């Protein structure tokens, strides 16, 4: 809810996708948020579904007023969504992976004017895994560090955004991670971080079996981000 106790108005960008569908369904179970618009790449067959107005990406500028956009689309869609949030003074929560360095720089620049949050992974388990990886890397100097990630065959970017974020944690602890990616079947997302030395090996593994965990995390973050001062927030800033 915002200060006036009205539900926070959400625009979902990437609404027809796997994450978008989970977001629409789970937002409907909460009373502190209301989805006012759903945007996807192409012209939707049905314009209004369960009271939510659906738009094609080309019609983004005509979207109704919203407090926060939740973006789980593709890198091509990210720029226009960020620009609209800046124009409207709305917050942006994004989980879109595979962003180019210029897109990350644009997000940093936008954070001077609006509240933004980008996270490679919205699950609590991965947040904890990330801390464990950094601690393990710091405690095991000289050990080999390898990150193996597995996802469904439709995932476009590799290594996954989560693997790269875990790699950054490992680097922070002093390790030099290498990456391997598998694309198979309908795997929601698995990340294994292995530390190995002659004669011994540690494996830290996170398995996501349902993408609702990401959607719940993103909705929670959106409800906490709307109305904040401009800035580039991290998921952990909003979890408590
Ligand atoms: P998907 O392919 O199922 O859906 C993509 C959606 O984006 C569709 O609605 C499509 O219409 C829309 N889209 C594509 N191009 C667009 C454009 N140019 N403009 C507007 N909309 C556009 O993908 P998905 O599995 O739902 O994943 C979406 C993104 O979220 C991917 O980048 C994926 O890696 C990422 N992801 C992140 C997390 C996380 O926790 N951060 C979790 C799961 C997925």
TrEMBL record:
Keywords: Amino-acid biosynthesis, Cytoplasm, Diaminopimelate biosynthesis, Lysine biosynthesis, NAD, NADP, Oxidoreductase
Residues noted as binding NAD(+) in the record, renumbered to the chain: 14-19, 95-97, 119-122
Catalytic reaction equation(s): (S)-2,3,4,5-tetrahydrodipicolinate + NAD(+) + H2O = (2S,4S)-4-hydroxy-2,3,4,5-tetrahydrodipicolinate + NADH + H(+); (S)-2,3,4,5-tetrahydrodipicolinate + NADP(+) + H2O = (2S,4S)-4-hydroxy-2,3,4,5-tetrahydrodipicolinate + NADPH + H(+)
Positions with a binding annotation for NADP(+): 41
ATP-binding recorded as keyword: no
Record: active site: 151, 155
Main location, first listed in the record: cytoplasm
UniProt-listed InterPro entries: DapB_C, DapB_N, DapB_N_CS, DHDPR_bac, NAD(P)-bd_dom_sf
Pfam families: DapB_C, DapB_N
Family: Belongs to the DapB family.
Protein name: 4-hydroxy-tetrahydrodipicolinate reductase
The organism of origin for this protein: Lysobacter panacisoli
Species classification: Bacteria, Pseudomonadati, Pseudomonadota, Gammaproteobacteria, Lysobacterales
UniProt gene name: dapB
């Amino acid at each position: 809810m915002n200060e006036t106790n009205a539900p926070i108005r959400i625009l979902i960008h990437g609404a027809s996708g796997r994450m978008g569908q989970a977001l629409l369904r789970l937002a409907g179970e909460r009373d502190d948020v209301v989805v006012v618009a759903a945007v996807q790449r192409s012209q939707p067959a049905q314009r209004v579904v369960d009271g939510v107005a659906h738009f094609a990406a080309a019609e983004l500028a005509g979207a109704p007023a919203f407090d926060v956009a939740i973006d789980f689309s593709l890198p091509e869609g990210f720029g226009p969504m960020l620009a609209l949030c800046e124009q409207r003074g709305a917050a942006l929560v994004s989980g879109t992976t595979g962003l180019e360095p210029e897109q990350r720089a644009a997000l940093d620049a936008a954070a001077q004017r609006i509240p933004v949050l980008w996270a490679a992974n919205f699950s609590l388990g991965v947040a904890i895994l990330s801390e464990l990886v950094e601690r393990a890397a710091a405690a095991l100097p000289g050990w080999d560090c390898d990150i193996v990630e597995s996802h469904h065959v439709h995932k476009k970017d590799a290594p996954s955004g989560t693997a790269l974020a875990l790699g950054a944690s490992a680097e922070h602890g002093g390790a030099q991670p290498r990456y391997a990616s598998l694309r198979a079947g309908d795997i929601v997302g698995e990340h294994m971080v292995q530390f190995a030395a002659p004669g011994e090996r540690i494996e830290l593994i996170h398995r996501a079996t349902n993408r609702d965990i990401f959607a719940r995390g993103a909705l929670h973050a959106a409800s906490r981000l709307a109305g904040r001062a401009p800035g580039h927030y991290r998921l952990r800033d909003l979890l408590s």
